[in-house]
Structures are given as C-alpha cells and as structure tokens.
C-alpha cells in the first residue's frame, strides 16, 4: 500500500526485456539505505518487489501482467521514474490509498501552462473513465492527484510548481504514456453497481448521490 506522495526521482540504470518478463535496475539514491530484498517499491505507480541491492541500485523482476498493463516495459536507460516506498504503520497519509496495482495506461493529451499551475489532460479508455468522478482521486505514474474535469475519453488534473519539480510530470510531454490507477472506492462502487458483467450507466456524481454514496 502506498500514498501517492513521491519520495524521490530515481534513474533507470538498466532494462533487460526477456521472453515473458523483464529485469529493471533503478538508482533510488538515498532511499536505498532503508530498503531490503523483498520490500515493495512503487516505480511510476507500479508495485514491484526488490530482488537485489547493489549500493543505491535496486533490482526488480517484472512479470508479464505488469508489462501488459503498465508502461514499465517502455522504460529506457537514463529515464527518470517516480519512487515511493510502501506505507508503514503509523506513517502519515498525505495523498490517498494507492495499491500499486495499475489499472491501465493513459496518454498525455495536452499540457496547458498557466500562471501558478499547469493543467494536464490525459486520454484514457472508456473502462478507466467510467471509474472516475470529478474531484475524485487518481494515481498518475504513482502521483496522488485530484481530477479537475472529465470529458469523453479525457480527464484533467491541475499541477502546482512543486509537483512539476519533484515528479516526472514536470518534463513529460504530449503523446507520452503514463500509468493510471483509479481510486479504490470507485472500483468498489462500480462492482456494487455491476449486474451480470455490465453497469446500467456510467458512474457519475449524480448517480452516486442517487444511490446514497454521496
């Protein structure tokens, strides 16, 4: 379990793609002093297990499922990645509950720079969009953010200068892919409202009010 509050920008040192899996090595800097084999670390929002540590370089095995559902397999040497260690009992929860189980991949649609903030639009599948609501939480590359607006196949978030400075969203551009994890509450609500594998309508703020969730 994670919070979506990024602790460090790591650097990819090696990506070794295999037939049905991959091994990636990430320099996590000073965070390595408190990491042991078997620990869970979120790399761009994907929960991975530490298999080996050499100085500040941490090794991870990546499964087929992770390669299929995330953008982890597209990482290249020298890419920067968002790093967060798993939540410990008693830690402060600054963002929202993030499982590290990525739901799918989105694409940066456009970036709108404004005084004091930056609005970024992402295109996502209908399945992902149906689990989002305005002002709801979403994890983008492991970053806990609040949805500002939702349109057909698109949603937006507002980023303050600090977030741009300490996460990968500060240098990613339109057309690049990101890992998306929707809010855990939204998934449970969708499950409750699902009958025989299909929902009667998309999840909206109005429908949640009607059903008594808000």
From TrEMBL:
Q: In which pathway does it act?
A: Cofactor biosynthesis; riboflavin biosynthesis; riboflavin from 2-hydroxy-3-oxobutyl phosphate and 5-amino-6-(D-ribitylamino)uracil: step 2/2
Residue spans of the Lumazine-binding repeats: 1-96, 97-193
The keyword Nucleus appears for this protein: no
According to its UniProt entry, one GO biological process term is: riboflavin biosynthetic process
Kindly give the Pfam families that the UniProt entry links to this protein.
Lum_binding (PF00677)
Tell me the superkingdom of the source.
Bacteria
Q: Which keywords are on file for this protein?
A: Repeat, Riboflavin biosynthesis, Transferase
Quote the PROSITE patterns the UniProt record gives. LUMAZINE_BIND (PS51177)
Q: A GO molecular function for this record? A: riboflavin synthase activity
Q: Which residues cross the membrane?
A: none
Q: Cite the EC number.
A: 2.5.1.9
Per its record, the protein catalyses: 2 6,7-dimethyl-8-(1-D-ribityl)lumazine + H(+) = 5-amino-6-(D-ribitylamino)uracil + riboflavin
The record's InterPro entries line, in alphabetical order, gives:
ATP_synth_asu-like_sf (IPR023366), Lumazine-bd (IPR001783), Lumazine-bd_dom (IPR026017), Riboflavin_synthase-like_b-brl (IPR017938)
Q: Which CDD domains match?
A: Riboflavin_synthase_like (cd00402)
Cross-referenced NCBIfam families, in alphabetical order? PRK09289.1, PRK13020.1, ribE
User: Quaternary arrangement and interactors, per the entry?
Assistant: Homotrimer.
Task: Provide the protein name.
Answer: Riboflavin synthase
């Amino acid at each position: 379990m994670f919070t979506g509050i990024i602790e460090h920008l790591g650097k990819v040192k090696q990506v070794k793609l295999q037939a049905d899996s991959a091994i990636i090595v990430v320099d996590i800097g000073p965070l390595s002093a408190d990491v042991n084999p078997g620990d869970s670390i979120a790399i761009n929002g994907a929960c991975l297990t530490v298999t080996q540590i050499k100085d500040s370089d941490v090794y991870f095995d990546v499964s087929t499922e992770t390669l299929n559902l995330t953008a982890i397999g597209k990482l290249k040497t020298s890419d920067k990645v968002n790093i967060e260690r798993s939540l410990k009992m008693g830690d402060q929860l600054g963002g929202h509950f993030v499982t590290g189980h990525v739901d799918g991949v989105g694409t940066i649609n456009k970036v709108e720079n404004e005084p004091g903030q930056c609005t970024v639009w992402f295109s996502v599948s209908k399945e992902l969009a149906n689990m989002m609501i305005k002002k709801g939480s979403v994890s983008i590359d492991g970053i806990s953010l609040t949805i500002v607006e939702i349109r057909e196949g698109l949603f937006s978030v507002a980023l303050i200068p600090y977030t741009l400075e300490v996460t990968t969203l500060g240098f990613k551009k339109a057309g690049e892919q990101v890992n998306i994890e929707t809010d855990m509450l939204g998934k449970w609500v969708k499950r409750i409202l699902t009958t025989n594998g299909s929902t009667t309508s998309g999840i909206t703020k109005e429908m949640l009010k009607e059903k008594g969730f808000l």
